[in-house]
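At this stage, I put together one protein's amino acid sequence and its backbone structure tokens, which the following lines show:
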Amino acid sequence: MRYGIMGGTFDPIHLGHLIISEYIRVELGLDKIIFIPNGRPPHKKVSTSDEDRYLMTKMAIEDNEFFEISDIEIKGEVHSYTIDTIKELKKMDSNVEYFFIIGSDSAKNFHKWKDYREIFEYCKIVCYQRKGFNLDDLSLENELSSKIIFIDSMLLDISSTEIRRRVKEKKSIKYLVTDIVEKFIYQKKLYQEEGEMIEKILKQLKDTLKTSRYEHSLRVADRASELAHKHGEDSERAYLAGLLHDIGKVRDEDVLLKISTDFDIILEEKIKSDTVNFHCILGEIIAKKVYDIQDKDILNSIRYHTTGREDMSPLEKIVYLADYTEYGRNFEKVEEARRLADENLDKAMIFALENTIIHIIESKQILHLDTVKARNFLLNEKFGGE
């Protein structure tokens, strides 16, 4: 028997998941596809309960006789890793040949998965390719990448992140999910609480930022979400970080005084005197005090979105590049910067940092040491000091 495995958070499951699964089942002659909702994925935050995600998945696939669902990860009490799931499935039935289905976004980061080499010993890897995917993007040994089955599938550009956002913004999700899943989402009021928080942030940003800065922040948030989606990172965290990245650029001293008084923010003189970093440091403080953001990665993304720093996280790079390449920018090399950001975060960072350094020197402005360190770190650690 030949079974396909479609794993994911399914938060929520959408028509793209179903179309891709059926296409691959037919193309590879698989006997069935097993949908496995992740229990506690180590790399991603989920918005709804395990039970709700399981039920939505079960409802979505119920009219296809070749689709089944497994709770093998949902019922686990620890982080769910692919290697552990595959081993458990093989233990249950060693005669089945498994085909583990991933998207090209996941393939780019496959080398970061737990015991990724061992996964190939237990199943075949099937990768459905998104537009713009390049084999050079894989960070796998040639002997492993050659074992991957690549499928040019009929892809719909639908994402769970976009569906959650549409629900939050009270927009229609019809034809993005099955009718029964759509009904379930609204009956259970899923994804709406976070939408209320975003609405609150948007209102406060509008009240405290200049109009041009507010509109820039919206574009950065959208671009950050887009980049996160392209590079297999959490789009919602990226959107929130992008939205808040310039929160420290309040429109005038009166607004700053009111925020400082209302939320007991004390700014030391050395912070005020840091002309390059002042709005970044203030933004981090406001994010914590005013919006109760405790996610260190989001806070660092706000703190270092202007200068960069050594050993930046993927989210920090995404916010930095979203600010640099948002679609309102029109400097000379912005199209090249956008292309690189879409393809490779590290190459895009070096491009952006080096061009920023040149611009600062030519403008006779103060060059922050963190910017130089960020550039040198990437050259040494990612590209061997090229």
Observations:
- The two ends are 49 Å apart (CA to CA).
- Residues 60 and 303 are 42 Å apart (CA to CA).
- The first strand starts at residue 2 and ends at 8.
- The chain has 19 helices and six strands.
